[in-house]
Specification:
Blueprint: E1 8-15, E2 19-28, E3 31-41, E4 45-47, E5 50-52, H1 55-72, E6 79-83, E7 89-92, H2 113-118, H3 123-130, H4 139-145, H5 150-154, E8 157-160, H6 161-170, E9 175-176, H7 177-180, H8 195-201, H9 205-208, E10 211-212, E11 216-220, E12 232-235, H10 240-246, E13 255-260, E14 263-270, H11 277-282, E15 285-288, E16 294-301, H12 304-313, H13 319-326, H14 349-359, H15 368-394, E17 400-404, H16 411-421, E18 424-427, H17 432-444, H18 451-461, E19 465-467, H19 474-487
Parallel strand pairs: 1-6, 6-12, 9-10, 13-17, 17-18
Antiparallel strand pairs: 1-2, 2-3, 4-5, 7-8, 11-12, 13-14, 14-16, 15-16, 18-19
Length: 488
């Protein structure tokens, strides 16, 4: 099917924990084009001993970006959508104002909260009820840490970060399904909050309110920056990864996806969640997606390993040069498990590798390139392992891997994934979250017929490249077996 798409312009606000961008999207001549209008660095601020988000600055910069986007657009934008990182929220008072500066997911207030929760509800029951696995930063644990606080008592509404921005745009205080599902408080089936979980948190359901489907029209933008333009606020997939998956240029339905960034996400899209005991033990989590879908996935410490090793080198070296150092096949022995806590936030990444080698009885490499090769290959081993597990849990064969995000720009990584995982890799788009944001706006406004057409448009609009699996040496296969041994 050739995607046609009716022409329109829109604004996509893509909020990341490291940067926030306002993008101008245009649909015309069967392709989607993007233009970055405004970008700001986003970083956690310490306020009164807590890790927080400077929401006043964030909102001001987004409004400035919207104004610039309207000026830059040849034809007036018809809509706007917002996506962001998961789990974090704001508290609003009866006047719709912030009760306090929003606290960031990395704040230490959640320490010990998972153990406290287990005294109230078992991990198996919590997982079965919500489909969400246990991460210390989950909204469930954030709210448990503030149970009975004055801030919660003063609040009348709890909105997730992208929903708060949509509230400022439209005046509608509603939480969207995909971002709400990251909380570990939403019923795994349907769009209702889990009443027993809310009761144990001492939360009134009215504070969280009704959960709306992605693609819901919220009404005309009420910000003065919109001037006299009639611009519709669209509740796109509030969670950025859900937007990424919506933009996958899928043709073969037997696929999994890898979102390769500082964190890597390996997942499958399905019509039902994977909530077996084995899925829970493997760390599989089930977030919601566009069109009543589930995204069953595993979060893995990702290119953070390479970023840390690069920093450890204390030399001016590019990632391209790092890949040249490992491009030639050289036999090494060392492997790591990226899920090991040593790699989460070490003071010096090379030391974390050395500590891991020591505790697993491995010798230390003599060359820096071998540390890099160990990191790249171990990441690919982790991808292979979790893809095989997802294949077994879902009962579906996985033939194709869609690799998206910043890592999709690396020919070396894409080819290495294809070879080690033994499956075809399709790379791109790099701008997956923004593309998905725009596609969902287009569907909501009737400019794109459905998700299938939207994905076809993405494929026509982006650099998409195919990688066939290469030959796997006996040494590489032995190292994968070693990875399986140290992981268990």
């Amino acid at each position: 099917m050739k995607a046609t798409g009716k022409g329109f312009n829109c604004i996509a606000v893509d909020m990341g924990a490291g940067s926030i961008r306002v993008m101008l999207g245009s649909l015309g001549e069967g392709v989607i084009s993007l233009k970055e209008i405004h970008r700001i660095d986003n970083e956690i601020q310490v306020e009164e001993g807590r890790d927080t988000w400077n929401m006043e600055k964030i909102v001001g910069e987004i409004r400035f970006g919207i104004s610039k986007a309207i000026e830059a657009s040849e034809n007036a934008p018809e809509s706007i959508g917002v996506d962001a990182w998961g789990v974090d929220y704001v508290l609003l008072d009866a006047h719709g104002e912030l009760v306090e500066t929003p606290v960031a997911y990395r704040d230490k207030r959640t320490e010990g909260m998972q153990e406290k929760w287990l005294s109230m509800m078992s991990d198996s029951e919590t997982f079965t009820r919500t489909g969400i696995n246990f991460y210390v930063f989950n909204t469930l644990f954030q709210l448990l840490s503030t149970k009975g606080s004055k801030a919660l008592q003063r609040s009348t509404k709890i909105l997730f970060v992208p929903c708060y921005i949509s509230y400022l745009l439209s005046g509608k205080a509603l939480n969207e399904l995909t971002i709400a599902s990251t909380s570990q408080m939403l019923d795994v089936n349907g769009d209702q909050w889990d009443h027993e979980i809310l009761d144990k948190l001492g939360l009134e359901e009215g504070k969280l309110g009704k959960v709306i489907e992605p693609g819901t029209l919220l009404g005309q933008v009420v910000l003065p920056e919109a001037r006299d333009i009639r611009m519709e606020s669209v509740a796109v997939c509030g969670h950025d990864t859900a937007c990424v998956v919506a933009a996958l240029p899928v043709e073969n339905p037997s696929y999994a996806y890898i979102s390769a960034g500082t964190w890597c996400i390996v997942g499958v899209e399905s019509v039902r969640p994977l909530i077996s005991e084995k899925a829970r033990q493997l760390g599989i989590t089930n977030e919601r997606g566009y069109g009543n879908s589930y995204r069953s996935l595993k979060n893995i410490v990702g290119l953070w390993l390479l970023q840390g090793l690069k920093k450890s080198l204390s030399a001016d070296i590019s990632y391209a040069q790092m890949e040249e150092m490992v491009n030639e096949e050289v036999d090494i022995q060392q492997v790591i498990d990226p899920d090991d806590p040593l790699f989460y936030n070490p003071a010096r990444m090379k030391d974390a590798f050395d500590d891991y080698y020591e505790k697993t009885g491995q010798t230390q490499p003599h060359r820096f390139s071998d540390y890099l090769r160990s990191a790249y290959d171990s990441l690919c081993f982790s991808f292979r392992f979790h893809i095989e597990q997802l294949e077994e849990l879902s009962g579906n064969n996985i033939e194709v891997l869609h690799l998206v995000g910043g890592g999709s720009q690396s020919d070396y990584l894409c080819q290495r994934v294809a070879t080690i995982c033994g499956r075809e890799v399709i790379s791109g788009p790099v701008e997956g979250a923004t593309m998905g944001n725009i596609v969902i706006q287009g569907i909501a406004l009737g400019k794109i017929s459905n998700l299938k057409e939207g994905r076809a448009l993405v494929k026509q609009s982006c650099r998409v490249k195919n990688y066939a699996p290469g030959s796997v040496t006996a040494s590489l296969e032995e190292r994968y077996k070693k990875y399986l041994t140290i992981k268990t």
